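PROTOCOL LOG
Step 1. Enter all chains and additional molecules of the complex.
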Amino acid sequence: MEFSALEKIDDLLGKRVDELKEAKSSGKKIVGYFCCYIPEEIIHAHGMIPLRLSQFGDNNAASIGASYLTANACPFARSCVGIKHSGKNDYFELTDMIADAPACMQMRRVLEVFETYFNTKIILISIPRQFYSEKGQSFFANSLKVFSKKLESESGNAFDSICFNKAVELYRDIRNRQRRLYEYLKSTEPVISWAQVMKAIRAGFLLDRVKYLELLNELVSEVDSATPDKNACSNIRLLLAGGMLAPGDDKILRIIDEVNGNIVMDELCTGSRGIYVDVKAADIAHIARGYLSNIPCGSLPYPRLEGDPRHKHLKRIIKDYHINGVIYYTLRFCDAYSFKAAHTREIVSFYNIKFLHINSDHSTSDVHQIRTRIEAFIESIGNGIDEHIS
Amino acid sequence: MNIFRKIKFLVTGSRLRFGLGIIKNPGIITSIRRIDGRYTKSSAINIFWFLTRALWRFPGIFDYQPDPSLHGVSELTYMILSLEERLKKAKRDGAKIVAKWPANPTDLYFGCGVIALDPFFAGYCRILADGTSDIAKRGRAMLSEDACPAQAAAYSIISEETFPLDFFYPFIGPWCYDSQYCFEALRHKVDGDYGDHPVFDYKEDEKPSFDYMVGEIKRFIAKMEEFTGSKFDLESLRREFVIENELREALREITGFAMLDPPPINSLDLVLCIFISSDWLGDPEAALQVLTRIRDGVRARAQAGQKAQNITDKPLRLLITGIAWGDLGLYNMVDEIGGQIIGSECVLNLYYEDIDTTGDPVRTIAKRFMTTPYALPAKERAKWTVKNIQRLKKVDGVIFNCNFGCNYQTAEARMVTDTIKRETGIPCLITDTDLPQENRGQMRTRLEAFLELIRQA
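Step 2. Run joint prediction.
Step 3. Record the structure below.
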């Protein structure tokens, strides 16, 4: 089903680079970032433009990045460096500084490479590993205060509580609408596809956030008034979980699509994970708590199996979205996620749901093997459903 | 040398001499400290029989050649090979064994009355004893095909219960990132928690992060009190500082002697000595006796102008940065081809200076955590390494080694070596090693070419 709001999003994305150039020439500062632990509210409140850097998946960039990070680094980290090295990505080039709160320590090194070899201005925010404890959250609040002060001096805009309140409200509204979009996917006869929802979510990394909210409102009302296309529904309902799947890195998505796999939900930091951030009040302490209480990134380890918030979330998704197959996709050398595959498999298998772990990179050398594995996986889910029906 | 010739060499040659050397020095403390602070002693004859049996039980010892004529090397070999059995005995005797990771100061663990075990190095001890990398391969099959060999071996020895372990409590943060996930993947086997080592902009004088670190150490101490059932005593931590400072001093002296011409200690023996600083093989007192003996032996050789075995005349001095090679055979190889390893940056981090014994021990440990050069941003780490190279004065080449699958070293290799080259002009080589014994041929070619390049320069 087509939605005019999505077409408008496409249209705006096409014009975004020019728009950013114009904003930059009028004195606005652009703050790039990679990780979803960066509170955009604070950047926005200082009158700066937050930009989650995108457009990955290019194996050449990953190869160039290897000359800085060696070939044993994760392809996403290598790509970040490779793209910066090429100097051809408009979004990378337009940023005045890169801020990050890297839960992933490889990304910390990436920023150091940026600073060392490309003279990029970087702002690092210390993120605690004790993300679930009060002490950890208060430590993060301190880090965010330091971050806010740095932005104050970079932007020349003093901290203004009215702007801050407005920013917190804006992002709360955005996340509400994003959650609403994901709600539609729970239905076995959804009117909007997961790919369309992903497109809308990822547009939020780049677009002007005020305009973006308007478009989300439009999209939600369009979807509300649409009727499902029953022919497009499938009994096979896949969850795509795992590590970093950056915009542009669509190898796995293409393969799943080619073999008629039907993804209905994701558990990705570039997809649904960010939408559950809940900032309850407009102050730094609540922002820190809101971000750290969200479903944690795999890069932040949890010391006990019992009560692991990632597992709880996974179980909830499986139930709410009627999942019958999980594809767990990890990038090579991403130990944060690949080391978790065994425990995740156990959780998923407990519900008698099929699980497939794919560990790959941006190259195309393993496309055929992955296709065969996914085909067989989907077939096995289909057989299971048929057996259940009979 | 084939296996039969090697056994003959070990039994009738130098091995016999070092066996007799033990008998002449009975009474060395070489067993694990018990929870109540008492020690049991292994007699020299026990060590001799253990090492004799080792010929059959630990085939891996045929693969490397320490210098048996150096005093203390046999005891060190004993400590490495007997680690597993000594820990099992200690556990039977009621001691608590807690896992740490390489950069975590051992003082804190031993000072809290528990035995610190570094699964990373214990895994290597097992590989050394077995003579194969099978445990790392099994660990990799369970963990991830991209796991670094040290993590894979560590995972294996814990999940297969090869080494006893009661609790996991590493401090995690800015170095050896993979270890936190290895620990997480072992949650079904061992209970645990972890301390948070904050990173980035914060230094000791920046109150929030320092206070946070102090809070994390206090939390660790409280957990250890609960775990051992005994009240923590600040004095016992301070006493531990004193013992381990002596150990660090001994290591610094041994490293200093390695710089002499002719070198009185070969690469393998030096590396075996400095490796143990990761957890003192479960027994700091015994380690101190062994290292003191080795240091005295090295000093005597230095005074006599005696050169270590296996080493060539006027070897080129190489410093290993990054992670030291886990394949001990490579150290023998370097000696053979005209090089000499004079230190390893990763372990140097643990003994480069003493811990202050005068101030508040908890704050002292927090400071130690936060100033460990390895944990600093790459630029500062590189500066520290350059400073040490300049201090050592006689470094001919620097090797930066990355373990396959190590996310940490790989990301820093270029930044650190570029700084070293720029600041000192010393040639650098980045190597990438995986499971022990698997790429010795390639490494030999690369190392020979590197040494040739240095000579021409």
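Step 4. Note key features.
Confidence is low (pLDDT under 50) at residues 1-27, 34-38 of chain B.
Chain B has one domain: 3-456.
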